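pinging the channel bc i need a second pair of eyes. not urgent but kinda urgent?? the chain im working w is below, pasted from the shared doc
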Amino acid sequence: MKTKGELAAEQAAYWNGPGGDGWLAAYERIQRSLADIGDIGLAAAAPRHGEHVIDIGCGTGGTTAALAHAVGISGHVLGVDISETLVGYARAEHVAQARAHRLENATFVVGDAATHPFKAESYDLVFSRFGVMFFADPVAAFRNIRRALKPAGRLVFIAWRTPQENPWGTAPARAAQPFLPPLARPGPEDPGQFSFGERARVERILGEAGFQKLRLEPIDRQIWMGPSVADVVAGAGRFGPLARAFAGAEPAAIDKARQAIAQALAPHEGPDGVRLPGACWLVQANAA
């Protein structure tokens, strides 16, 4: 069994390597896929004028920019991400936006929110869109996050539910699996895309971290995966679990895997592209 330190190091290496590169390569698709869910999360967070906010797993900075516009020039948003690749993009994008809109109330830092030395009791809101599922020690991470919040501060984040409820993320890999080398399955406490899928685990983690008044609301949406099956298949293997599986497979096996993915996705192609069901939690809690 890997130590928490080894798991954290793996996450840092992945997001500063193939994970960050793959995210940027799929940037336009990801933005369209997650826009609706992200808007739900931002509406629930309800950032107010003058507030100080942390955006965890800020990625390329889209949610950070939205939060910065909401809190105005008298507020501030700190975007935190473990990936130098993504933060570099976010910084460049924010500079361009700041020049266009004269809004310079956001900064970005490369770091792990689990251990980052946030100024204690200084933030009104901590927000995250799919950025909190990768902590090696989630209880310790959320304790660190809670320390950054003011006593009246609030936490709002979105995380995927179980793999079974998210065919958009599992159907391609399941179709391709017979033709590819097996991948190690994460343990129930290991970090990963669906590690916050079970309500009881989320409630336990946040409760042990000291958060109060937990509210979990299920959000179900059709996830846009691309304009066509051919486009989705062409991008398969660039990002996520399939990328690791493809890296260890023979070309003939990859071809068969792509054919299987196309067959699995064909029934889900419509006039505006390929969509499969997705399921996530909208989680809200108070610092005290």
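so Residues 4-286 form a domain with the Rossmann fold fold (CATH 3.40.50.150). and The CA atoms of residues 158 and 282 lie 5 Å apart. — does that match what u expected or am i reading it wrong
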